[in-house]
Design goal:
By secondary structure, the protein is mostly helical. It has two helices and no strands. The longest helix is centred in the first third of the chain and has 21 residues, at 2-22.
Amino acid sequence: MARILWIVLVVLVILWLIGFLMQIGGNFIHTLLVIAVIILIINLVTGRRGV
């Protein structure tokens, strides 16, 4: 599950950069990026702990 979240995060960052450089997508891409960052933070905080 964590691997999928990382893939989604990378894809959204790439889309955000493309949208930022080409002025495509507007607020939608920025909203997706914020959601991805929130998911990343939750994943890092509640991730697996070492034994």
